[in-house]
Amino acid sequence: MRMNLEYGPDDALLVVDMQNDFCEGGALAVAGGAALVPGINAEIAAARAAGALVVASRDWHPVDHASFTHRGGPWPVHCVQDTQGAAFHPDLALPDEAIRVSKATAFDADAYSAFDGTGLGGYLREKGVSRVVVCGLALDVCVKATALEARREGFATRLLAPLTAAVDPQGTPAVLDELRDAGVAIDGEASS
Ligand code: VGL
Ligand code: ZN
């Protein structure tokens, strides 16, 4: 169940948007989303045991957010602040000390990357983090944007590909190529 990655105190495991709305039964469900939870929990436990930082981002929109279709955006209503759909998956084993990062909280702008508008890059540097390990949902939207911005922020970046799932799985090879070209190391094969 574990990826073959050794964590250390200079690492941050960044779990992207493992929320009910992105899992089966949610408003913007990604096929295979819920199935990632046990594997991600194993990575959280390993990261924690090695003294790595654990960070969990969440999509956290106000009602009537600009990304919703009724406002002219591309997505159905999802991850509205304080709703059940915006909650982390109930089986996600986030320790108390995990850092929670809320993104895309403004009415008038979307943000796919966990670094976008959150100050996360500066915070990780303050904490001495040099490498960011990314997993979660959705590979082709927020995971991709987060991994690309981690690289732009100057972090060594790894993607745990089997611990991601895509809105459009057909596009996965192209997404992995784009990440590789940007200098993101890819662990394992994508599950579909
Ligand atoms: C996401 C679509 C809209 C994601 C967020 O977390 O991947 N996708 N908002
Ligand atoms: Zn969103």
From TrEMBL:
Alphabetically ordered keywords of this record: Hydrolase, Metal-binding, Pyridine nucleotide biosynthesis
InterPro entries registered for this protein in UniProt: Isochorismatase-like_dom, Isochorismatase-like_sf, Isochorismatase_Nicotinamidase
Domain of life: Bacteria
Keyword GTP-binding: no
GO molecular function terms listed in the Swiss-Prot or TrEMBL record: metal ion binding; nicotinamidase activity
Pathway recorded for this protein: Cofactor biosynthesis; nicotinate biosynthesis; nicotinate from nicotinamide: step 1/1
Single GO biological process annotation from the record: pyridine nucleotide biosynthetic process
EC number: 3.5.1.19
Similarity comment text for this entry: Belongs to the isochorismatase family.
Protein name according to UniProt: nicotinamidase
Organism per entry: Halomonas shengliensis
